[in-house]
Design brief:
alpha+beta; Vanadium-containing Chloroperoxidase, domain 2; 3 domains; 4-stranded antiparallel sheet; disordered N terminus
Length: 502
């Protein structure tokens, strides 16, 4: 008999070959007897994530409220799924609840359906009934279905109540500063987008300023920043690289700039692109549905807090930095080494081909904050960074519909710096949020949806005919990466292995 104990380090990345396949073969939800599965979604997590992305397209607007909606929906789904799985067997719990754990069990997919539907209804209005009917089309009425419905509705109600009075409804108008360097509206006739979002109560952070990046270039005043050498360098950089008719920007940089943009209403917006890429990676890595519930909840929580982190720095410090378009067109910035051009336009364009810049301060980049935070969460989940994938976009000006990335960091870096090539951000808007975004991603995983706890060891998995210690260890490491169980032990004999957790 061979036995060994492993404890996962919070920063440990391991080799996870075959783990996803192992979990996929053992953790799929059991459909109720007699269900007409052909008409039902095969994956209720992706189904409702797609419904969420359509809600993004329909609603439009700034990314903060969209990211908040995504976190609320996926947390409700997580709490519902966790309630069902814990009732099935203690070892199957996904982790600690975010808001609520409902006793009694029920149908797994039904719980997800009602948790997602009721949360979206509370956020966007009563227009998701057809999707609920579609999702439930393969689930006949039964006591299990009724119990699952109750669990899902309670989970939705709990997260909606939890987020009541979280500051997201604050509509206090923005006060402009008539100072060179200070943000000025970039879309005439429109107020700056969500100027109070940095004060929204976070989902995992202790405050919106917990990971606040330093002021740009280390400056403390607009004059100090605008006359600095770093500002001069970055002014000239974005002026040449981000110009609509630039001859310096490479075709690949132009392609990446539009690929990551998704600024326009009618697209799934930056948070939606993050979710779409999460879908693609989860599909390629064969993440089973039950595990996917937690992966999407972790990503969603981190994205919601990333929006708060970025908007805290954009609006709530002493420097609300103007966009490159405003700076380059300005009459005078007090810097003799910058040359203004009132005819300069960024590459960024609306649906009519008119150049524009997003109507909120430049520093820091929301795209970059989302990107680096997401990459940290994904590295945690999969235990490694070097997972290649091909991502997609919805930007109407896209040149390529797909781009390939060799790692999560590779994708995040390109996403962050694409904003410079689009002409809407300074270089330090991206670089200054690399560490804060990464720290937020790590924090979010380590301080929410926590490990299960048990005073006694529980049998998690028995596999006949498998005696490879590495396969058992990889499975244990993956459930630790997912923050299900922190400790595991493998017992292996000549005919099988048993994986215990606690």
């Amino acid at each position: 008999m061979l036995s060994f104990i492993k404890r996962r380090s919070l920063r440990r990345f391991g080799v996870l070959a075959a783990t996803a396949v192992t979990l996929a073969g053992t953790l799929q939800a059991v459909a109720p007897p007699g269900a007409a599965l052909a008409a039902a979604p095969s994956d209720h997590v992706v189904f409702w994530n797609d419904v969420l992305l359509q809600a993004y397209r329909d609603a439009g607007g700034a990314p903060g409220p969209l990211a908040r909606a995504g976190a609320m929906m996926h947390v409700a789904m997580y709490d519902a799924a966790n309630s069902i799985l814990c009732a099935r067997r203690e070892a199957d719990c996904l982790g600690q609840p975010y808001v609520i754990k409902v006793a009694g069990g029920g149908d797994f997919d039904t719980a997800l359906d009602y948790a997602a539907h009721d949360t979206l209804k509370a956020l966007f209005g009563d227009k998701f009934g057809a999707k609920l009917t579609e999702a439930q089309s393969g689930t006949p009425a039964s006591p299990q279905q009724a119990a699952g419905q109750s669990v899902g509705k309670q989970a939705a109600q709990a997260i909606v109540q939890n987020r009541t009075n979280d500051g997201s409804a604050n509509q206090t108008p923005y006060t402009f500063q008539p100072t060179p360097g200070a943000f000025q509206r970039t879309v005439q006739g429109q107020e700056p987008a969500t100027p109070n979002w940095g004060a929204v109560r976070p989902f995992t952070m202790t405050s919106g300023s917990q990971f606040r990046p330093p002021l740009p270039g280390g400056a403390t005043t607009y004059q100090q920043l605008l006359t600095s050498s770093i500002y001069t360098e970055q002014f000239n950089e974005v002026k040449s690289l981000g110009e609509r008719t630039s001859t310096i920007r490479t075709p690949d940089q132009t392609d990446a700039a539009f690929f990551w943009a998704n600024d326009l209403d009618g697209t799934y917006k930056p948070p939606g692109q993050i979710f779409a890429h999460t879908q693609l990676v989860a599909r390629d890595q064969h993440v089973p549905v039950e595990s996917k519930v937690k992966l999407f909840a972790q990503v969603a929580l981190a994205m919601a807090d990333a929006s708060i982190l970025a908007w805290d720095r954009k609006y709530l410090g002493t420097i609300d930095l103007w966009r490159p378009e405003t700076a380059i067109q300005a009459q005078n910035d007090g810097n003799p080494d910058t040359m203004q051009d009132p005819a300069w336009k960024p590459l960024s364009q609306d649906r009519n081909g008119v150049s524009f810049s997003p109507n909120f301060p430049a520093y820091v980049s929301g795209h970059a904050t989302f990107a680096y935070t997401w990459a940290a969460v994904m590295r945690h989940w999969f235990g490694r960074d070097d997972i290649a994938y091909t991502g997609t976009t919805e930007d109407p000006h896209k040149i390529s519909t797909e781009r390939h990335f060799d790692s999560f960091t590779d994708a995040a870096d390109e996403n962050a710096h694409s904003r410079l090539w689009l002409g809407v951000h300074w270089h330090f808007d991206a670089d200054s949020v690399l560490n804060p975004g990464t720290e937020l991603g790590d924090w979010s995983v380590d301080h929410s949806l926590l490990y299960n706890t048990s005073d006694t060891e529980l049998l998690y998995l028995h596999r006949d005919g498998v005696t490879d210690p590495e396969e058992c260890d990889n499975t244990g490491r993956q459930i630790s990466n997912e923050h299900r169980w922190e400790f595991w032990r493998c017992d292996i004999d000549g005919q099988s292995f048993d994986l215990y957790v606690h």
